[in-house]
Structure formats: C-alpha cells, structure tokens
Specification:
Elements: H1 2-14, E1 28-30, H2 36-48, E2 59-65, E3 69-75, E4 81-96, E5 99-113, H3 118-152
Parallel strand pairs: 1-2
Antiparallel strand pairs: 2-4, 3-4, 4-5
Helix pairs in contact: 2-3
C-alpha cells in the first residue's frame, strides 16, 4: 500500500502540480459582520486566513449574513415539531486594490432535534447554528483564497 502511496506523489510532483495553499499569504481583511452570528463567522474566517489582518491588507472581504431561517422538517401526529432545519445565507464581495475581484452568495443548513425541554432545544439549536457558520466560513474562505490565488497569477476575471 505504501508503494502506491509514494508512487502517487512521485507522479503528482512530476506533472507540475502545486498546492494552491502552499506558501500563499492570505492577506485578507474581513470587515466586521453585524450580529452575534456575524462575530462568530468573522472569527472563523480570520482563523482560516491565518489570523486577523490590518484594514490596510491587500484584499478586503465584506460579508452580509442573513438572519437564521428555521423550517419544520418533521411533525408528530399531535402537530408538534420534532425536527427542524436552520438555514443561513451570506453574500460576500472580495476586493483587491480598490476593485471587486469576486462576489457571490453561499448558503448552508443543518437539521436539529427540537424537543419539549427548553434547555435541550436551545443547545441543539445553538449547535446547529455554530455548525452552519463553520460550513459558511469554509465555503467563503476557500472561494476567497482561490480568488486571491487567481488574482495573484494574473487570471482575474475581467
């Protein structure tokens, strides 16, 4: 098994493959995002970019986070909800040198158990929101890093 593993890397290194994240400084300033969920999302994004950057960074990321949308997923015969889904949407704009280089909208959702016990329901809801924010940070962060890489290599969208 090890032999195939090493062979894979030898072949991969010979094709000119270079990992996108290797040696790439992600000098991205994430503007403050409103709300408690916005603070969490901003902290997650800053962690993905290697820590909080100065407002004078080469790239600026502006994110508008929507309020959580809750949908019922399962109902008991009594009509009580037992399963819900949380959905979060975020619009973002990545700028460099004063011009927009990328923008988009990302969405993430997670289902959670909704029970009659208030403490358990709140904990389940809060965990679902936190997990959804982590997924949004992964999606936006990966896209932002890819766009900065493209911009640095002269392949920016015109």
């Amino acid at each position: 098994m090890k032999k195939y593993f090493y062979l894979f890397f030898v072949l991969l290194s010979g094709c000119g493959f270079k990992p996108m994240f290797s040696g790439q400084d992600t000098d991205i300033y994430v503007q403050p995002i409103s709300g408690i969920n916005g603070i969490v999302l901003r902290n997650d994004l800053n962690a993905k970019f290697g820590g909080q950057k100065d407002p004078n960074a080469k790239y600026t990321l502006k994110v508008n986070l929507s309020n959580p949308i809750t949908k019922y997923k399962a109902l008991e015969t009594t009509g009580d909800a037992t399963w819900q889904e949380i959905v979060l949407n975020a619009d973002y704009v990545l700028s460099a040198d004063g011009k927009e280089i990328a923008k988009g909208r990302e969405s993430a959702s997670e289902s959670y158990t909704f029970v009659r016990y208030l403490v358990a329901s709140n904990a389940s809801y809060n965990n679902a929101v936190q997990n959804t924010l982590n997924v949004l940070a992964d999606k936006i962060g990966t896209r932002a890093i890819a766009e900065t890489y493209r911009y640095e290599n002269g392949n920016a969208k015109k």
